[in-house]
Structures are given as structure tokens and as C-alpha cells.
Amino acid sequence: MSTPTMDDAAKVLADPQAYADEPKLHAALTHLRANAPVSRVEVPNYRPFWAITKHADVMDIERNNALFTNWPRPVLTTTEGDEMSAAAGVRTLIHLDDPQHRAMRAIGADWFRPKAMRALKVRVDELATTYVDKMLADGPECDFVQEIAVNYPLFVIMSLLGIPESDFSRMLKLTQELFGSDDSEFKLGSSNEDQLPALLDMFGYFNGVTAARREHPTEDLASAIANARIDGEPLSDIETVSYYLIVATAGHDTTSATISGGLHGLIDNPDQLDRLRGNLDLMPLATEEMIRWATPVKEFMRTAAEDTEVRGVPIEAGESVLLSYVSANRDEDAFTDPFHFDVGREPNKHVAFGYGVHFCLGAALARMEVNSFFTELVPRLKSIELNGDPEHVATTFVGGLKHLPVRYSLR
User: Fold this and answer.
1) Per-residue pLDDT averaged across 290-317, rounded?
2) Using CA atoms, how far apart are residues 3 and 13, in angstroms rounded to an integer?
3) Which residues form the signal peptide (predicted)?
4) Of all residues in the chain, what percent are helix, strand and coil, respectively (each to 5)?
């Protein structure tokens, strides 16, 4: 059994600003993978946790969902945030363990199966064309994130839920406030309590959706959630709102971050853009590489149900581990030349969607959206370059670029 380690480099994982400085973040994570792949982190305002930075260890923990549970600490937040989340009673899919997780997941599963995705593809392709046309009309410059990347997947996921288009801007504002609570541009204040109005606004809105769909069921995912039953009983208000919350937020911000991060990867690697332009059959592989490259979900947490060890380091029952997806997806032992953006990378066993029973419910939809957008954009793109400095969201959970100023020419 190896000696438990505590490496100061691991503190970046509890520093939202570090995720806005990718060179600093990746330098720290590269050091940790080589020198302290399992490192205890103790920093002010956070409960202690173990940082897991190697791809193989992340996969092992994800596989063993009985030993490493999602509840009670599914994501890294401050101690105050942990307490506020517990008090609010939010129980989304990422908070649940089996058998509750399996029963809740089944409610939305059919909406993300291949048959449903084939039916949705026409709409996704139409929206991809709409937003590439918007780039053409608004060019030759734009902030790609704010004008294109945040809106395209928002339209897709809101259409799936059946939310009226007149409410899309409200949903965008709320998702940015919830996931951008550590970022000075998006956060509502300096404490977790300042984010409570956004959460309550989201609760109020979706409680209204539930009431409407129960009175008048429709053919959309929101109606499926509102009218679902487990063991013969309808979902409680907190359960329905929690379900909407995870679909609306995770289904939007993650795809937005992948599309903007993918375009940034192509701009920084013009040889890969030329390669993709010359062979669109590479698009499925390019899509996976964009997802790996952006890794929009930075981490998930798990809690040990009993005493165990990871890579020889003892983890006591009740202690938390942080699964650093962003580190695992740059692991030199899992990927050849991991810091090279390669649109033909194969194999590409990234963990951006998680693994095991908690594998991302909307993975097929995210892949479709990324594929459809770049299948429309790349053949029409004559030139593109940065038109200013890209900026990343400060976060410890979900995020990516918040500004990507570009200059381009389209046909």
C-alpha cells in the first residue's frame, strides 16, 4: 500500500479560475498524473476530497457504482454549496444511485434511443443550417460562443422538451447563471445564496410546466416527465423539477462548450480543418475528438461506501473522490499524443460522457448535434481565424469557452 499523498498541484481542481487558464490547469494535471495520481485535497471553504487524475482509475471507479456512490456529493461545490443543495432537496439523475437511479433514468431513456434520434435528426439538421446561415448573414465577424454555440443546442433541447420558443432566452439566462455561478461575468453575487433566485426561478417555471402537462398531456419529453409514475405513484414536484433541470441545463451547456471548443481546435490546427474538409467521412471521429478536446463536464464526485483503496492509496468509507475527466482525457497512458487535436483519432476512449450506469443519457443527441453542425459548416467554410482572445468560463463543474471572437468567410 502506497503512502497517501497530498500535492499542492491538486488544489487547482477546487479553483474555478484555473479552468479559465487551460495551460495552467493542464500543467498541474500533467504533474499530478506523473507524480501524485491520487492526491488528497484540503483547501478553505471545501470539504476534503481525493483527486483522481488517471484514466484507468476514473474508469475503475465508474464501473464500481456500488462501492463508489453518487449520493450525497455528486459534484464539487463549496461546503456552503453542499449544504444549500441538501436543503433545497434537488435530486437529479446525477444525485441518485440504483435502484432509484435506474427507475428515474427509464423515464427519459426512450427519448434518447436511436429511433427517437433518427426522428429528431431532421430538426437538428435544419437548425444546423439555420445557424450556419446566420453566421453567413452576420459575418464576417462574430463571437461564435454567444451568437451561435449557445443558441443552437438550446433550440434543440428546448424543442425536445416542448418549451415554447418565447421562453428560450429565459432558459439561456438561467442555465448560464446556474452553471456560471463561479464566473464573474455570469454569477449573481459573491455567495451561493446569491444563486438561489435563479434556482427558484427555474423551479417555479418547471412547476408550471408540470401542471400544464398533467392537465393537457402533449407529445414531448416534458409531458413524459410530468406524467411518469414509479411504483404506481407520480413524481413529486421536486422530482419533476430535478428531471427538467438536468435535461435543460446539461443538454444545453455541454453541447455548446463542445461545439465552440471543437471550432477552436480546428482554428488552432488548420491542417486538421483541411483534412476534415477533404474527407467528411471523418466527421464521426472528429466529433469524438471535439468532445474529448473540450471535455465540457470537468468532474464528477463519488463517495466511498466502505473502506477501499485506489492505486494503493487507502480511501475510507464516507470520503469523497473527484473524478477529473479533463485530466483523464489527456492521460498519456490512454491516448497517443493526447495534446494533439486529431480529427481522425482512433481509438478514442474518452470519458467525457462518463462510464457505466451513469453514462450520459443524452450522449447520442450531443454527438448528433456536433456532427450535424460541422457537417453543415465545414464545406461552406472558406477561411476562419481568431479575431481576439478566447475566454473560458471559471468553473469547477460544467463549462468551456464563453467568448470566441472569429473572423471568417463562408459560401
Assistant:
1) 97
2) 21
3) none
4) 55, 15, 30
Contact, 252 vs 160, CB < 8 A? no
- Report how many domains make up the chain: 1
Residue-range definition of the domain harbouring residue 118: 86-296+339-410
**In whole angstroms, what separates CA 296 from the centre of its chain?**
4
305 in Cβ contact with 368 (< 8 Å): no
- Model pLDDT, residue 1: 42
**Which residue, chain included where needed, has cell 443519457?**
361
In this structure, is residue 127 part of a structural domain?
Answer: yes
Residue 193's pLDDT band (cuts 50, 70, 90): low
**Any idea which residue has 461546503 for its cell?**
79
91 is a domain residue: yes
CB distance 244 to 161 below 8 Å: yes
Mean pLDDT across the stretch 133-158? 95
Q: What is the pLDDT of residues 214-272, one digit of tens each?
A: 999 999 999 999 999 999 999 998 899 889 888 887 788 899 999 999 999 999 999 99
- Residues 263 and 403 sit within 8 Å (Cβ to Cβ): no
Per DSSP, the three-state class of 179 is: helix
CATH number at residue 255: 1.10.630.10
The DSSP code for 50 is E
Q: Find the helix or strand (DSSP H, E) in which 238 lies.
A: helix 237-268
pTM attached to this predicted model? 0.94
